[in-house]
Write a structure and sequence with these properties.
The chain is 55% helix and 12% strand. By secondary structure, the protein is α+β, with helices and mostly antiparallel strands. It folds into 3 domains: 73 residues; 72 residues, no CATH class; 160 residues, no CATH class.
């Protein structure tokens, strides 16, 4: 009997150890699941859900582990669908913004990377390829007309260099006409043909200088209530202070990549811990601006007009209720409803402004995709001028 009692005690001890290990796994998995609200990129969210699901499954028969594993698998599947929809939305935007054959090729590749049968991705990819080919043919016809007068081409064409030479001379013509960015792209595509690599670098620098000069000039002439183009996007000037300009994105529509962005996908209490803030100051920042343009943005330390009174420091933020009142005369007409940086009166809601500029304080659910993110930035013209001097100095 003594031996039997000892065996039972050993079994109970093993069970306790197993239960403790399962509890630890379950708690670790819960922490990983809770961390999802801090993750912005879809790929990382999917990976996080999958790891959490595996940990819940490894927790064995711990109470609730099986249900939580299934929940994580479901969330991972939803995140995959969200990623596909987001990739499709970006590809559509790139298609709409495409102006060169290279940009159409990029959009086509993005559509082709989507899973087969997703919406009309295959048709859109084919349309992008056709549009790119049409631009290439049109440019080739223009070049052929200009190059007809260049007698020396006959010899080079006979050497079998026709395609490379046509592109080379076309790039030269584009560069001479001031289309520096196009020339740089064309020279780079030649992959070492003659001195194309050196010319690609030279025209890339000229394009950078030209872009900086254009933006500096536009800001110099800008005034409150007017509009200015910065980062290939139009902005409304809310205020001007010396060389610094407070700008608000203009012309937001439901086809913009800024439309359909939730205020928060977790349990944020305000702007400070929202996923919208994290996205605007990371992925959206790089999509909106070049490195030169990002370098001219000023950090804004501000206190949202509603919340716990804590201040925030952002390169990109959105309007809050106080902004709609302070800049009412220059706020401009909205093309879509926008989020405001203030909690709503309902649980889990945030304030928004309609396209008729009505502030709805009751709010909308944080996860709603019926609104646009309306970025506000502060640009310093002096910083742009410093960057231009650096580029000119080489």
């Amino acid at each position: 009997m003594a031996g039997i009692v000892s065996s039972d005690r050993s079994a109970r001890g093993t069970q306790r150890l197993s239960a403790a290990a399962h509890a630890a796994l379950y708690n670790s998995a819960m922490k990983k699941l809770e961390a999802d609200r801090c993750i912005v990129q879809y790929a990382y969210r999917i990976e996080n859900f999958e790891k959490a699901a595996q940990m819940f499954e490894d927790a064995g028969d711990y109470p609730g582990a099986s249900d939580m594993a299934a929940l994580c698998r479901e969330k991972a599947a939803l995140a995959r669908e969200d990623k596909k929809a987001d990739d499709y939305r970006k590809a559509r935007q790139h298609e709409k913004d495409a102006e060169t054959a290279g940009e159409y090729a990029k959009a086509a590749a993005e559509f082709e990377a989507l899973p087969g049968g997703f919406k009309d991705a295959a048709e859109r990819a084919a349309a992008c390829r056709q549009a790119g080919e049409k631009l290439t043919r049109a440019r080739a016809r223009k070049r052929n007309t200009s190059l007809a007068a260049v007698a020396c081409l006959a010899l080079l064409i006979a050497w079998g260099l026709k395609s490379g030479l046509l592109t080379y001379v076309g790039a030269v013509l584009d560069g001479k006409s001031g289309s520096y960015a196009t020339a740089a792209e064309e020279f780079a595509s030649l992959q070492g043909f003659l001195n194309s690599e050196d010319l690609a670098q030279q025209y890339a620098v000229l394009a950078e200088e030209d872009s900086l000069r254009t933006e500096i000039s536009a800001l110099r002439e800008a005034s409150a209530g007017g509009s200015v183009t910065y980062g290939a996007k139009k902005w409304t000037v809310l205020a001007k202070n010396g060389t610094q300009y407070l700008l608000m994105a203009a012309g937001l529509t439901d086809s913009s990549f800024l439309y359909g962005i939730p205020f928060d996908t977790g349990s944020a209490q305000g702007w400070a811990d929202s996923t919208l803030r994290a996205w605007l100051n990371s992925d959206a920042l790089t999509e909106l601006f070049t490195e030169d343009e990002q370098a001219a943005l000023c950090e804004m330390t501000w206190t949202p007009s509603a919340g716990d009174g804590s201040s925030c420091t952002d390169l990109v933020r959105i309007p809050d209720i106080a902004d709609t009142e302070e800049y009412a005369s220059v706020f401009g007409k909205l093309s879509s409803a926008i989020w405001l940086a203030a909690p709503g009166e309902g649980d889990g809601t945030f304030v928004y402004m309609t396209n008729t500029r009505e502030v709805v304080t009751y709010g909308a659910p944080a996860g709603s995709t019926a609104f646009s993110a309306c970025p506000l930035i502060t640009v310093d013209r002096a910083l742009l001028k410093e960057r231009l001097k650096e580029v000119e100095a080489g």
